[in-house]
Amino acid sequence: QVQLVESGGGLVQAGGSLRLSCAASGRTFKMGWFRQAPGQERDFVASIIWSGSSTYYADSLKGRFTISRDNAKNTVFLQMNSLKPEDTAVYYCAASNGGTWEFWGQGTQVTVSS
Q1: Residue 98: is its pLDDT beyond 90?
Q2: Which of 34, 84, 93, 99 could bridge across to 22 with cysteines, CB 3.0–4.6 Å?
C-alpha cells in the first residue's frame, strides 16, 4: 500500500501560479495528477514515469502545466502557470504500478479567481 499526501493548493488570481506537491510513502512505476471540478468527472492532468522521466499531459494543459519528480524524496510536483478560473478543481495525486491508478491522495483544492 502506498500513501500519497498532496499539498500546495490554495486560492490564486487568474494568471498566477501554484506548485502542487505529492509525497509518496513508496515508489511506484508512475505517478500522476488528476482534477475534478464541481459536477464534473475526474480528468487526467499529467503523469510521469519514475525510471525514464517520460511525461504525459492532457492536450489542453500542455505549455502551462509541468510535472516533475524528486526520486530521492519520492515526491512529484505539478507546476501550474497562467492559471485560469476554469482550472479551479480538486487536484488528486495518483500512483500506479503499471495498469490502473491504484493509489490516490485525498486531494487538494485549487481555486482560481477571476
Answers
A1: no
A2: 93
Q: Cell numbers 494568471 correspond to what residue?
A: 15
Name the amino acid, one letter, at 25.
S
CA distance 94 to 61: 18
pLDDT tens digits, residue range 99-110?
899 999 999 999
C-alpha–C-alpha distance, residues 103 and 15, integer Å = 31
Per-residue pLDDT averaged across 83-100, rounded?
95
Mean pLDDT of 10-34: 96
Q: Which residues contact 88 (CB under 8 A, 6 or more apart)?
A: 37, 110, 111, 112
User: Which segments of the chain does DSSP mark as H helices, in order?
Assistant: none
Torsions phi, psi of 49, nearest 5? -90, 130
C-alpha cell at 12: 490564486
